[in-house]
Fold:
Amino acid sequence: MGKLKGLVNKGVGMLKDVKTYWKTPKPGNYLSFKEAAAYCIGGMGVVGASVIPTYVTLAAGQYVAAALKIKVDDIFLIGIITTIITILRSPLCSWLIDNTRSRFGKFRPYLIWMPIPIIACLFLLGWIPYALQGSYVAMLVVFTLIFNLLQFFLQLYTLSFNSLLQVISPKQSEKEMLMSFGSVVYSLGPSVVNFIFPLLANVMFTIGAGDNKIMGVNTIGPYQWLLPLIMCICMALGYLTAFGTKERIVTSKKYVQKVKFFDGVKKTVKNKYFWIINLSTAIGVFKLVGTTFVVWICSYLIKEDWAQSVFTTLMGSACLPGMLLAPILIKKFGKKNLILFSNIFAVILTAIMAGLCAAPGSASAYIMLLFSFLITMVNAVQVVTTPAIGAQMYDYQQYKTGDRLEGFISQFGIIITSAIGIGTAYVLPFIQKHFGYTEDPAVLAQTSVIYPIIMYSCIAGIISGVLATIPFFFWDLSEKRHESVVEILKVRALKEDKQLTDETATELEAKLEKGENNALTEYLQTTKLAEAEEYISIQENVNVDSVIPEGVIQAEVCIVNVDIDDSSRITNKLLNDTENTVIEETLVDAPTNDDVEIATEPADTEITESDTASESNKDE
Structure:
């Protein structure tokens, strides 16, 4: 009874926190519950939209490839062409993102504008290639062109959403919590899409019966009407994230990132963690292959209208325990060990699945689905660990070279993984052709064809999973070391903003490099700067189209949350050197109490918002 009462009280306390800190962050944090909700609920639309193109990606024996009757060899050829185009377009994507500066920030503009061309390309993809079926080659050419345009716009869209998580807060624990619970919320987007689309497609568009039955997802109708409609709904929901969040970066207020392509490449290759992550990704391309046969099993072995919707939804729910437990497991074992455990267990389960295919029985289809579920479940922690180590990698990049380079790192990684992918792309088509599947997907209904394909694909997955695990044995960026890196970035930002002397900054960096992670906090407390905003140089999206007086911005940064009568006391307690004159002048030059009151508003006041130009001008 006592435990139950404790849980109730804890729940009531959480609800009170939500109400109290709905619009303003909890002390010590940067995210209000309102902003976190905007990211998560809007993320349902963004992530839901990101899985929709998988239905128009050419895959042997299913979806649009089956509807247009595209041969296995041509699927392989178009895949190679698409990979080459991906390599060529990635520098453009990275250049666009890393050099974007607007009143909406660096990433959010793409969440605002990319839905228009994405929806247009998806609609065209359902109609034009089908209209050209009389000329097979022309159909393939047009399909490839429209599909790669779709992929370009979608790449900017999804990359912006994923990168936004890295800069939504400078506090790592806050980001990890958002990754964990946020991923539970926005993973509902793909789950709903993967349930609704196959179910409606099969109910509305299935033709034939018995051995001649063609499931609706393998006909063209859903891709002309249903899929574009679902995309519109997802994109509309995604605007909650676009307009309801901010970007915050630990850097000098004066810093403006402008990156040349080859300079970005030179700086990126110095980041060893970039190589660990991308090498593991590239050679681990088949490690989850055991989860990719759900559609085949439902379409060619179970053959029920409801099967794909039900089992793909169950596969999505398999991620829930891992995503919820990830923060606890990260705290106990660390991100590196959690990734190693996850990969090893996935390899073991894939090996068991391969063994089942060697001696199939009457219930083999359902048992394989069970193991697909288990593989998905043990891999789910990486839904949280992957962006978490990505955030560490970006912070390390800024620590190492002075630039975060989210665009270059992500797109250069795509170039590397795509280049390696060209060499591995023939593995699965070779297995499929070897066991009799070349053109007609109907042969997959034969157990003598489908089971050997799944078995040998799983063997490839076992090898891939083992190799993908090896690079992470060399990951040495621990959680404690990452905390030091972030603190060092704060010191450098304070130094560049003339709030620390060169000598003091050097001394603090030396302490932080030794692992004294409280060095900066203790220093700020002794100089009374702790009463100022916790992270003095956290940049939020300021409307660069309007001119805000420099003095007002600096006053806001330095005395936020401080009573007006205490401003002179804090000024007198700042560092006694000439480099602090900028701050002191800001306070002295403030002409009226009204101006100072504007400066003393919390960090989320309108003066630092980027919503509209008119609001900034009004504050000015």
Notes: Residues 136-167 form the longest helix (32 residues). The CA atoms of residues 45 and 233 lie 7 Å apart. The radius of gyration is 27 Å. The longest strand covers residues 249-250.
